[in-house]
From TrEMBL:
One of the Pfam families matching this protein, by short name: Ligase_CoA_2
MF terms (GO), sorted A to Z: acetate-CoA ligase (ADP-forming) activity; acyltransferase activity, transferring groups other than amino-acyl groups; ATP binding; metal ion binding
Organism: Lentzea albida
InterPro entries, per database record: Acyl-CoA_Synth/Transferase, Acyl_CoA_acyltransferase, ATP-grasp, ATP_grasp_subdomain_1, CoA-bd, GNAT_dom, Ligase_CoA_dom, NAD(P)-bd_dom_sf
Domain of life: Bacteria
Domain ATP-grasp: 653-862
Protein name, as recorded: Acyl-CoA synthetase (NDP forming)
Keywords: ATP-binding, Ligase, Nucleotide-binding
Length: 865
């Protein structure tokens, strides 16, 4: 068995970086030193003896390439082996015995759990399903490590030994435990970037127009609370800060270095910083050789922001760090902002500043060779200073981890993202209707919707959403009341609400009566409410209170204009539990009391719609449950027997039935006689479908004949297929005719980065005539499935006449199939015939391909390019 000797870097709980790799013969001495350095107590707990016999032979056998059933993974720091974990496969190829040893000095730093996570991932990829171990009952630390892993485990005590068994399936509990450990380690490492006690600006030029000069000046003028140094061999001081000739000459080791030197010099500066013990770098310079930069970053265990970035800032009183070259500092606040684009960062910063909204952190990731939005989500998840997270992402490094992180953060804090390109250009030609739907934008939007990320398309939209989310409660529903002193603008506001999927609330008779009393007989007391231009500030405020008290009202939009008779804007105020958004023609601003005020009714309605969507997402259950009547063993056997290409129709039927899907079924006939016999077995008219090489869409290509009855007609249809497709014909699938009903499409398209996408929409001939589909990423919760089956334009009409519960069940089962079998790269159920009494899969195609096992949730830093 080939050893995976190329190391990956990962973080321990204290934020330090270690190299994790599969060990080989070259690691024998390091393994021996590790074991021999153990105190007697640790040796006894590991080997049940204080003097293990033939230790050298044992170690050499564990790492020998001649022992394919032995696997060892180790963690190194500075060429010193901190710990090792191993497994040995026994008679059952799916079961292995596991053992762990960690240097006494490194225990309680997370080495053991990190190594076990990597061993679990490696073992799963090699077909191992369970780990076993024998642990002394007095070895509380080892038992605690197994407990903390989050895997399903059983223990059987026997005398002074505990027999442990660990299931290796990556359940939500296990992934949550891994994520919690990763967040703890990541936050510890990011503290060197976002809360440093000392900073050195390398390349701090005396020229006021240079980036290095501006960064240093911003740190000085921002009153950075820590120690500040400048590196410039040609100056004694810059911006009042003493200069030193090199990083090595600094009087103390800075925690963070901001690098503003020419691109060709950056790798050398990074190496110098690493040797000095700098913990993190922010590289502003652009045009840097990524591979050359990452070498010293990884060798010395540093974290990196950039290169090609604006920089970072933190407004916390204990830090006050503005390590950017932005023209203005950010206001202190509670918005965490991460963006790949420096220009977008500046635009957002300036607009938020104008509105009096401040940032907790700004991180411009630039080329994001190391620190990415995933890292920042882990930081902001538990950061009390951050209450809203804003993102601008041009690409996803690990979208599946992003989705899981975003979903967790969004439960507690709003996440807002500006949509941008998410991957390379999409498929220009697809083999199925499902695959043609799986464009990058569709996949990205599905991820955002399911993860609770509020998606917008521009900087102004993001700012509008932030204003609403930072000051207003989430509404309890979609019913909106509009209160205005200008009737026409009130009508425009109501129209905008409807366009954005909101409802115009039906005010009660008591509410309308009170409004008429307050605003006078000339007012319109029905929604949208027009108080007329003569209403005063006090009366307008009381009208707002009356509307807010109506149980039918979930939110209020006020629209006010100044007239010669007065301006009721000052009467707009907050309501307990009910969001209020104001409109005042002109410039977007914030009113007294923090009420967000928009320049146009349409912008207010759009922002309110985003508030409503967040409330609905929070009210949903996001739990993914396993379906009953699923035979995974049979399903995995089918994809194993057919490792590549489109499955034969009979295997498709077996696969779908293994997941409990209602399949019509049929017989694959390879001769006329066989087709006739199949027809007789079904005792009624049949559908005949050609199975031929490169035949993707049967109906278009003349590969389907319906309602065939009688032996002669069946034989003639078979011969017609043979004449039409010639040597390409592999057989004819004979099925009983399905009863009439609405025809839908349900499919799966696999994306190597984002995972499987489940698609549904109109099926049958409508698929080719009307491009009307919805999509969501697997796996699906019940709420996800409901959103999916209602997500295409014709869904309302379809569900009104069909069995919605049966459609939901099909979607959930197809999603589970996609999640459990990554080998299924494409699936088309078309049509799925749906009636008022259930569903029936009439035709389906499944394509499989060998896939390399990938653990998207494994704890590791980005690999060196």
């Amino acid at each position: 068995m080939n050893r995976q000797l190329v190391p990956v870097q990962a973080l321990l709980t204290d934020g330090s970086v270690v190299s994790v790799c599969e060990l080989g013969p070259g690691d024998v001495m390091a393994l021996l030193d590790l074991h021999r350095s153990l105190p007697l107590e640790d040796q006894y707990l590991r080997f049940f003896s204080t003097s293990p016999r033939q230790l050298e032979d044992f170690v050499r056998r564990m790492v020998s390439p001649d022992e394919p059933h032995h696997v060892v993974i180790g963690a190194y720091r500075d060429d010193r082996l901190l710990g090792a974990v191993s497994y040995v496969v026994g008679e059952d190829p799916e079961v292995a015995e596991v053992a762990l040893v960690v240097s006494h000095a490194e225990q309680s730093h997370g080495v053991g759990t990190l190594l076990l996570e990597h061993l679990v991932s490696l073992a799963r990829g090699r077909g191992i399903r369970r780990f076993t171990a024998e642990v002394l009952m007095m070895n509380f630390k080892m038992l605690r490590v197994f407990t903390d892993m989050g895997l399903v485990w059983t223990v059987v005590p026997e005398d002074d030994v505990v027999h442990v068994e660990l299931g290796l399936d990556p359940s939500d509990r296990y992934l949550d435990a891994v994520a919690e450990r990763e967040a703890k380690a990541d936050v510890a490492s990011l503290s060197h970037v976002l809360r440093p006690e000392s900073i050195a600006v390398v390349g701090a030029s005396r020229s006021p127009g240079s980036v290095g000069h501006v960064v240093l000046r911003n740190l000085v003028e921002g009153d950075f609370t820590g120690d500040l140094y400048a590196v410039n061999p040609h100056a004694k001081s810059v911006a009042g800060v003493d200069c030193y000739g090199s990083v090595a000459e600094l009087p103390e080791t800075p925690e963070l270095a901001v690098v503003c030197v020419p691109a060709r010099a950056v790798p050398g500066v990074a190496e110098e910083c690493g040797r000095r013990g700098v913990r993190a770098l922010v590289v502003i310079s652009s045009g840097v050789d990524a591979e050359e930069l990452m070498k010293p970053v990884r060798v010395h265990g540093m974290r990196l922001v950039g290169p090609n970035c604006l920089g970072v800032s933190t407004s916390a009183p204990g830090v006050r760090m503005n390590a950017t070259f932005a023209a203005h500092s950010t206001l202190p606040g509670h918005i965490g902002l991460v963006t790949q684009s420096g220009g977008v960062a500046i635009a957002l910063q300036e607009e938020l500043r104008r509105l009096g909204l401040g940032l907790s952190n700004l991180v411009s990731t630039g080329d994001k060779l190391d620190i990415s939005s995933n890292d920042l989500l882990m930081w902001w998840k538990n950061d009390p200073e951050t209450r809203i997270v804003a993102l601008y992402l041009e690409s996803f490094g690990n979208p599946r981890k992003f989705s899981r992180l975003a979903r967790e953060v969004a439960r507690h804090k709003p996440l807002i993202a500006i949509r941008a390109a998410s991957s390379e250009a999409g498929q220009r030609a697809a083999a199925s209707h499902t695959a043609s739907t799986a464009t990058p934008s569709v996949i990205r939007d599905s991820l955002f919707q399911q993860a609770g990320v509020i998606a917008v398309d521009s900087v102004p939209e993001l700012v509008d959403a932030v204003m609403a989310l930072s000051t207003q409660p989430v509404p309890g529903g979609r019913s909106v009341a509009v209160l205005s002193n200008a009737g026409g603008l009130g009508v425009l506001a109501a129209d905008a609400c409807v366009r954005h999927g909101l409802k115009i609330a039906e005010l009660s008779d008591a509410t309308s009566k009170e409004l008429s009393r307050l605003a006078g007989p000339a007012a319109s007391a029905h929604n949208p409410v027009d108080t007329t231009a003569v209403v005063g500030v006090e009366e307008f405020a009381r009208c707002l209170d009356v509307i807010g008290a109506d149980p039918a009202v979930d939110a209020v939009i006020t629209v006010t204009v100044p007239t010669a008779l007065g301006d009721p804007t000052a009467g707009v105020h907050a309501l307990a539990g009910t969001p209020v958004l104001a409109v005042r023609t002109g410039q977007t601003e914030r009113l007294d009391g923090g009420i967000p005020c928009y320049a146009d009714p349409a912008r207010a309605a759009a922002a309110l719609a985003l508030l409503v969507e967040r409330g609905e997402w929070l009210d949903r259950s996001h739990e993914v449950t396993r379906q009953d009547r699923v035979d995974l063993g049979t399903a995995r056997g089918i994809v194993t027997r057919n490792p590549d290409g489109w499955l034969p129709p009979d295997e498709v039927v077996r696969l779908l039935k293994a997941f409990g899907l209602p399949v019509l079924g049929g017989t694959l006939a390879t001769t006329e006689e066989h087709a006739v016999a199949a027809h007789r077995a079904f005792s009624g008219p049949v559908a005949m479908k050609a199975v031929a090489d490169e035949l993707l869409h049967k109906s278009k290509s003349g590969g389907v004949v319906l309602g065939v009855e009688g032996d002669t007609a069946v034989a003639e249809a078979f011969r017609a297929f043979r004449e039409r497709f010639g040597d390409r014909l592999r057989g004819v699938f004979v099925q009983p005719m399905a009863t009439g009903g609405r025809e839908l499409l349900v499919g799966v398209a696999a994306d190597p980065k984002f995972g499987p996408l489940v698609v549904t929409g109109l099926g049958g001939v409508d698929t080719d005539l009307i491009d009307d589909r919805a999509a969501a990423l697997a796996p699906l919760s019940t709420a996800d499935a409901d959103d999916l089956m209602r997500g295409y334009r014709a869904a309302g009409a379809v569900l009104a006449e069909t069995d919605a519960a049966a459609v939901r069940d099909v979607l959930l089962r197809v999603a589970e199939l996609a999640a459990e079998l990554p080998e299924v790269t494409e699936l088309d159920i078309n049509p799925l015939v749906v009636t008022g009494g259930g569903c029936l899969v009439v035709d389906a195609r499944v394509r499989v391909a060998a896939v390399r096992p990938t653990d998207h949730f494994l704890r590791q830093l980005r690999r060196t390019r």
